[in-house]
C-alpha cells in the first residue's frame, strides 16, 4: 500500500505542477499584442504541450487514488466524511483541468476577452484546491 500511496502523491504533485503553470502561460498570452504572432504561437505551443503532459500525469494520479480508496479501503466506512469532501475537491480539480483545455482553445482562436489580471486570479484556484485536499487527507477533520 505504501508504494501505491507514494506513487499517488508523486503523480498528484506532478499533475498540480502543470495546473499551476498552465494558467501562467495564459497570463502571458493575455498580454501578447495582437501583432506579435510569433510570441503568440510560441506560447500556444508551450501551453498545448504542457496541457498534454498534465493530462497524462492526471491519469495515474486518479488511478492510484482510486486504488487506495477502493482497493485498500482508505476513506471508506463510518467516520470518513473527509473522503467525501476530498472527492469533491478531486472533481473540482478535474473541472478546472477541463476548463483550462477549453480556455486554451479560446486563445488558439484568438478570442480571449479576459485581462491578464483575471488570469492571475484564475491561477490561484489550484493552490486552494491542493491546500484543501492536503488538509482533508492529513487532518481528517470529519
SSE map:
Blueprint: H1 2-31, H2 37-71, H3 81-108, H4 116-122, H5 125-139
Helix pairs in contact: 1-2, 1-3, 1-4, 2-3, 3-5
Structure characterization notes:
This protein is mostly helical. About 80% of the residues lie in helices and about 0% in strands. The protein is built from 5 helices and no strands. Helix 1 runs parallel beside helix 3 and helix 1 runs antiparallel to helix 4. The longest helix is centred in the middle third of the chain and has 35 residues. The chain is elongated and about 60 Å long. The protein starts with a helix and ends with a helix.
Keywords:
5 helices, mainly alpha, 142 residues
Brief account:
This protein is mainly α.
Amino acid at each position: 500500500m505504501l508504494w501505491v500511496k507514494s506513487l499517488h502523491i508523486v503523480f498528484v504533485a506532478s499533475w498540480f505542477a502543470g495546473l499551476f503553470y498552465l494558467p501562467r502561460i495564459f497570463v502571458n498570452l493575455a498580454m501578447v499584442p495582437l501583432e506579435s504572432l510569433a510570441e503568440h504561437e510560441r506560447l500556444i505551443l508551450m501551453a498545448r504541450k504542457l496541457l498534454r503532459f498534465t493530462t497524462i500525469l492526471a491519469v495515474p494520479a486518479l488511478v492510484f487514488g482510486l486504488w487506495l480508496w477502493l482497493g485498500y479501503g482508505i476513506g471508506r466506512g463510518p467516520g470518513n466524511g473527509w473522503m467525501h469532501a476530498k472527492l469533491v475537491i478531486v472533481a473540482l480539480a478535474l473541472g478546472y483541468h477541463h476548463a483550462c483545455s477549453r480556455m486554451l482553445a479560446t486563445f488558439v482562436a484568438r478570442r480571449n476577452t479576459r485581462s491578464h489580471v483575471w488570469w492571475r486570479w484564475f491561477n490561484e484556484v489550484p493552490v486552494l484546491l491542493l491546500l484543501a485536499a492536503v488538509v482533508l487527507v492529513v487532518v481528517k477533520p470529519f
